Amino acid sequence: MKKECPECGEKIVGRIDKKFCSDACRNSYNNRVNKDSKNLIRNTNNRLRKNYRILEDLNPDKKTKTSRSKLIEKGFDFNYFTSIYTTKAGTVYYFVYDQGYLPLEDDYFALVKRE
Fold it and tell me: What is the pLDDT of residue 1?
């Protein structure tokens, strides 16, 4: 009994457990099957990357202060961050990888870089 490639329908030649006729068919099939979830992941990673670059750009000395309006002007999205760190005193920092920000009074933020 000859198996057929699930992507193009050609006969599969080779190992008995081989599922696709070529790497191209395997890649094409998996890209098609995972398209929706990959778009969500890609969009989320793009937003995280943009936020990271903004924080990195505004915080070259590893510790500074900036305004909410400056972050928003550069396109920062406060809904996307990778972790939250709460100090013993109860202060809450939001991090995008190793770049963090702390909400302060009057719409200002302390920017920090975790070592």
Answer: 62
